[in-house]
């Protein structure tokens, strides 16, 4: 049976028989040897539908999960898995982080860490879901470097990184503004955009730096921000000694010829992922109506709202064409839920703050009461940040947004809908 056929059965059947489970496991075992990416796809769907797996085959699937190098899942789901394989247990523990509490690297993260530990520079092209940023935290937590610089393209991403790394403030002064001076007596962790790197007065010797979304260094990009990022990169490469670096981003096929040799670097491209993306085309099924937006405006909106209601147990981001559309659709969806007699959730602390400090009649309050957030670039920073945090903590189910989230934040979304 083809991989897609197995995946379809796993996803759509209400249960999986013992014979089917054995058969799927046998196919997966072969694929992990001959076509690893296809084998990993099946395992991802098995993990997402674990309740369907017969207990008699749990141990087999656990061994396959270990064979695929999905060690973070082995730890996360250890109460449900039967992992009695001693050799596998030893391999699992070899992927345990020495610096991050309770964290395990997957197979390829472990490999990349080994490269960084060898003091080589590393350039990684990998999917967003690969977990490239975990290696940043590993580097910071190790305290091996005195001055670390992380360059990211937006303040929203940097704020998210700051939240993750603020636990290391005893070892590092965390610097996010050009007005903050570095310290001699302890480490400094610079979290800056490329523009702020260029503006920072008397930048000290950097020991290790990271450039997130490094593809923007490309000379083919004709924009001012690319120029600034290249200038910041060049500035760091002129330091003596040249700092160790880690460049990361998605969908990069290669780097300039001679760069690896000149800078003792390794370019590593992978499609390894612990998640699988599935595209569902709703447009084609409703093309006649969707192609006449004025005539069938209500039809398209109701299609969206019914879909969101079906997805109510999963985190969903809805992309809209403008800030006005974000607020209009969020408001209309709120009214849709009210008409369906959906219950409001317990009042969030942010709602209480808005009622006290802004306006108790602001419609954002009603959105939040129905587990709806918005992100359109126009709200106060801490309101945006709070809604993203609530979403990642599953206290909000929906976020209506513009492209602000594409480069702004990483979220725990299960579903992404492109509406208009």
Overall description:
This protein is α/β, with parallel strands linked by helices and 420 residues long. The protein folds into three domains: 3-93; 107-269, Rossmann fold (3-Layer(aba) Sandwich), CATH 3.40.50.300; 284-418, Rossmann fold (3-Layer(aba) Sandwich), CATH 3.40.50. The protein is 45% helix and 12% strand. It has helices spanning 3-12, 18-34, 36-48, 58-67, 71-76, 86-93, 107-117, 132-142, 155-165, 194-199, 224-237, 259-262, 287-290, 297-310, 323-339, 349-357, 363-369, 381-392, 404-408, and strands spanning 121-125, 147-151, 172-175, 187-192, 208-212, 244-249, 265-269, 316-319, 372-375, 398-401, 415-418. The strands form two sheets. It has a seven-stranded parallel beta sheet. The chain is globular. The model has no long low-confidence stretch (mean pLDDT 88).
Give the key terms.
single chain; globular; 7-stranded parallel sheet; Rossmann fold; 420 residues; 19 helices; alpha/beta; 4-stranded parallel sheet; 3 domains; 45% helix
């Amino acid at each position: 049976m083809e991989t897609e056929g197995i995946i379809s059965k796993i996803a759509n059947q209400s249960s999986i028989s013992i014979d089917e489970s054995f058969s799927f496991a046998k196919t997966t075992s072969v694929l992990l040897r001959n076509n690893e990416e296809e084998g990993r796809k099946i395992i991802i769907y098995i993990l997402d539908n674990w309740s369907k797996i017969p207990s008699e085959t749990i141990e087999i699937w656990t061994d396959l999960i270990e064979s695929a190098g999905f060690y973070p899942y082995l730890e996360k789901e250890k109460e449900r898995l039967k992992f009695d394989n001693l050799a596998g247990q030893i391999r699992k523990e070899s992927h345990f982080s020495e610096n991050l509490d309770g964290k395990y690297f997957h197979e390829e993260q472990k490999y990349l860490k080994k490269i960084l530990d060898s003091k080589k520079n590393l350039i990684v092209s990998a999917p967003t879901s690969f977990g490239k940023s975990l290696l940043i935290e590993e580097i910071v937590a190790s305290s091996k470097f005195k001055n670390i610089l992380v360059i990211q393209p937006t303040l929203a991403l940097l704020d998210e990184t700051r939240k993750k790394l603020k636990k290391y403030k005893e070892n590092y002064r965390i610097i996010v503004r050009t007005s903050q001076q570095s310290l001699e007596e302890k480490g400094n962790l610079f979290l800056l955009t490329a523009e702020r790197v260029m503006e920072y007065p008397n930048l000290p010797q950097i020991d290790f730096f990271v450039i997130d979304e490094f593809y923007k260094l490309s000379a083919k990009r004709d924009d001012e921000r690319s120029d600034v990022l290249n200038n910041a990169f060049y500035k760091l490469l002129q330091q003596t000694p040249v700092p160790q670096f880690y460049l990361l981003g998605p969908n990069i096929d290669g780097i300039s010829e001679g760069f690896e040799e000149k800078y003792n670097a390794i370019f590593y491209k992978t499609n390894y992922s612990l998640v699988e993306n599935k595209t569902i085309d709703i447009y084609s099924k409703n093309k006649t109506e969707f192609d006449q937006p004025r005539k069938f405006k209500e039809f398209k909106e109701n299609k969206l709202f019914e879909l969101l209601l079906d997805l109510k147990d999963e985190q969903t981001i809805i992309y809209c064409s403008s800030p006005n559309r974000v607020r209009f659709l969020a408001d209309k969806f709120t009214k849709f839920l009210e008409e369906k007699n959906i219950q409001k959730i317990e009042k969030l602390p942010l709602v209480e703050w808005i009622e006290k400090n802004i306006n108790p009649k602001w419609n954002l309050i009603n959105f939040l009461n129905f587990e709806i957030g918005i992100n359109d670039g126009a709200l106060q920073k801490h309101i945006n940040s709070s809604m993203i945090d609530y979403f990642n903590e599953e206290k909000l189910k929906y976020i209506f947004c513009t492209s602000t989230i594409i480069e702004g934040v990483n979220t725990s979304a299960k579903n992404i809908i492109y509406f208009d």
